[in-house]
Specification:
- By secondary structure, the protein is of the alpha+beta class.
- The chain has a single domain, classed as 4'-phosphopantetheinyl transferase domain (Ribosomal Protein L22, Chain A), CATH 3.90.470.
- The protein is 45% helix and 28% strand.
- A hairpin with a 3-residue loop joins strand 4 and strand 5.
- The longest helix has 19 residues.
Length: 119
């Protein structure tokens, strides 16, 4: 089975959420490694947010309880993003008979977009 998810978000929405709710928002949505990987940059965090949404679409999370932090979007040394799944997200991937989720992310000054493909 192959499943595709796409998401786009305005960078300003994440910038405002970080300014308004700071640690409450970032602690609920992002892992420690994601925050460190992005150096607190709203644009980078927005791409991670869009990527998590895209992964949730791959997993079909409408009826499943998957938390934001169970999906982690990091980058390797060359900058290529990759997905790590934990808890219910990892379980759901196995239920769908998939072994991995590949991710592509991009951003401009105003928007962040992500595409996820589960195989």
């Amino acid at each position: 089975m192959i499943s595709v998810g796409v998401d786009i978000i305005e960078v300003e929405r994440i910038r405002l959420a970080l300014a308004r709710w700071q640690r409450r928002f970032s602690g609920r949505v992002y892992t420690k490694d994601e925050i460190e990987n992005c150096n607190g940059d709203p644009s980078s965090l927005a791409t991670r947010f869009a990527a998590k949404e895209a992964v949730m679409k791959v997993l079909g999370t409408g009826t499943h309880s998957i938390k934001w932090r169970e999906i982690e979007i990091l980058s390797n040394d060359s900058g290529k993003p990759f997905v790590k799944l934990y808890g219910n997200a990892s379980t759901r991937l196995k239920e769908l008979h998939m072994s991995e989720v590949a991710i592509s992310i991009s951003d401009t000054r105003d928007y962040a977009v992500a595409t996820a493909i589960g195989t």
